[in-house]
């Protein structure tokens, strides 16, 4: 799930799929035991490189994958494949993947180790400000009290700072909406400093 979402372009589908992503994911999950996942196996190392799995360094703007629930990962992969979530790299990567490929990818993602915080000591004042902003915006009500996400929401704890910041910026600019408008409503009143502080806070929480 590399990078961040792009603005919609003429001729592309940016709204929810007419059958609903959850229904499509349900069909993928109901497909039975994984039979063929050749395309994902061919691209797994590229996924690991872009997202910084293990000792690899992630590309700028690419999210950490560790700690993401398998169902949530599958939901996003289906959205990328069907064009309901737009990112040039990801749309291209999964365009020809079968349901089995996407299920294999989501299971692989769910088995990765959670990301760790940056090694440097976080700035206490920024962490305090970030905690207040997170509480004021009730981030934990959806992303969990420890910001570890779940089957319907991504984890925020120790996610890459640049990815969180770009995501908030895209929500505020309505470049990324997805199936829910809640994040657009939350991000709209945030200042640039607020978004930077939240991104710093989540990225630097204790592991």
TrEMBL record:
Residue positions binding heme c 1: 47, 50-51, 90
Maturation and modification: Binds 2 heme c groups covalently per subunit.
Localization per record: Periplasm
Listed SUPFAM superfamilies: Cytochrome c (SSF46626)
InterPro entries: Cyt_c-like_dom, Cyt_c-like_dom_sf, Cytochrome_c4-like, Cytochrome_c_Oxidase_Subunit
Domain Cytochrome c residue range list: 31-113, 125-206
A family per Pfam: Cytochrome_CBB3
Protein name: Cytochrome c553
């Amino acid at each position: 799930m590399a990078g961040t979402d792009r603005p919609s372009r003429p001729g592309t589908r940016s709204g929810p799929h007419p059958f609903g992503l959850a229904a499509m994911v349900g069909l993928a999950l109901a497909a039975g035991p994984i039979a063929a996942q050749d395309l994902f196996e061919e691209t797994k190392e590229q996924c690991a490189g872009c997202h910084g799995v293990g000792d690899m360094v992630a590309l700028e703007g690419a999210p950490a994958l560790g700690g993401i629930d398998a169902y949530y990962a599958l939901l996003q992969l289906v959205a990328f494949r069907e064009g309901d979530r737009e990112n040039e790299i990801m749309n291209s990567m999964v365009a020809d993947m079968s349901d089995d490929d996407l299920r294999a990818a989501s299971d692989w993602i769910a088995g990765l180790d959670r990301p760790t915080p940056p090694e440097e000591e976080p700035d206490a004042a920024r962490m305090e400000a970030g905690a207040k902003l997170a509480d004021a915006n009730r981030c934990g009500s959806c992303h969990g009290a420890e910001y570890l996400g779940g089957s319907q929401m991504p984890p925020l704890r120790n996610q890459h700072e640049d990815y969180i910041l770009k995501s908030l910026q895209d929500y505020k600019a309505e470049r990324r909406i997805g199936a829910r408008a809640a994040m657009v409503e939350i991000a709209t009143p945030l200042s640039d400093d607020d978004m930077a502080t939240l991104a710093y806070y989540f990225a630097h929480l204790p592991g």
